[in-house]
């Protein structure tokens, strides 16, 4: 049935349209209660579904937060254990280095102190004994003035006094010189003792400083074990910083790998053929890329053998003898690959010179003479080809940090995404609650005329009944 046939129910199209409008309003009015119930039920069902989804997302977020905290705390515990272990090893080395000779040091100090005591005893100042003229004066004082003449006796006493004073002064000067010599001989011993005590003091201060550092690390370790909010916040920020720093270093390493690739890709085309393809990639490019990847792998194994990184616990758990052998083998392979790259870089320079000479001959000119300083460019390329593989060895350190911090970053991004999704679903759930009322009101707009007639016919009582029914429908 077409629209034109609908208008042909009466001879007048306008009257036909009016009849259809009245019929539609009647149908909508008669189905008003059921339609309201369907709309409200549908919106309530969508609201309940979204509420359940929000609850599920909240539970998932809590589990992800807990998992992220566990990862952070595990990584923090491992890092702190490594730091504390290294500090204890340093203290042990310091004790073995500085205090292993303590018995000899104590014997040296005892010998020096003994020599100083002996010299000090010899350097003690002994008061001079009374001279003979003092006794003579006492005898003269006891004589009777009438017995003999005093003048010659006093002259003799004066002479004896001068001689005794001269002798005493000489003896005192000799004793003072001897004491000064002994004191001067004691000065090197004093300096040796002072130097020894300063050395011991520095060693003790170093041990005390390391002890304070260990106490600080142990305090942070206890906070990590307890799982405090402060430790989790610190670990999160530290993990983010490490992620961005390691990503930056890895980007630099990728740039170095690209330079290395450009050095060996061209001569590799002469070795494996420049016309061979695997899919859409040239065989020469794949071979050059494989060499670089093997160098990076050997660098990873070398770092694992040195126990600098812990990406492969199996390598770190090997016996020391086998681990040293593996270290020697990986270093030998890396040295061989670096030598191969140096040769390829030299071959690249030769190919460039040959291409320049060929292009000059094709243009009809004479071949240009090589510059006497061409060896500088060749040596630089060979040096880069030999050095870059060893530089790529250290990629293992930022790679380990990047992998460890990536778990935390992915967890934080997942938590942020779940929280955003939960917010959107809550907004949609609230919107559906109000959308039911809005759809009911929109449904009543086309049938406003029958509703107005009903309202006028029922009066105030009908109005109150209709309002109560509408409220009941909205609440349900």
Can you describe what's shown?
The two termini are about 40 Å apart. This protein is elongated. It has helices at about 5, 15-30, 30-100, 100-120, 130-140, 150-225, 230-270, 285-305, 315, 320-360, 375-390, 395-445, 450-475, and strands spanning about 275-280, 280. The chain folds into three domains: about 5-80 and about 430-475, no CATH class; about 100-225; about 230-360 and about 370-415, no CATH class. By secondary structure, it is mostly helical. Helix 4 (about 100-120) packs antiparallel against helix 6 (about 150-225), helix 7 (about 230-270) crosses helix 12 (about 395-445) and helix 8 packs antiparallel against helix 10. Helix content is about 85%, strand content about 0%. The protein contains 13 helices and two strands. The mean pLDDT is about 75. It has a two-stranded antiparallel sheet.
Beta-strand content: under 5%
Number of strands: 2
Radius of gyration: 52 Å
Q: Strand-and-helix sequence, N→C? A: HHHHHHHEEHHHHHH
Q: Strands of the biggest beta sheet: in what spatial order?
A: 1-2
Low-confidence stretches: none
Provide the domain count.
3
Mean pLDDT over the residues:
76
**Principal-axes shape call:** elongated
Tell me the number of helical segments per DSSP (H or I, 4 or more residues long).
13
State the helicity in percent bands. over 70%
Q: Report the structural category.
A: mainly alpha
Instruction: Note the main sheet.
Output: 2 strands, antiparallel
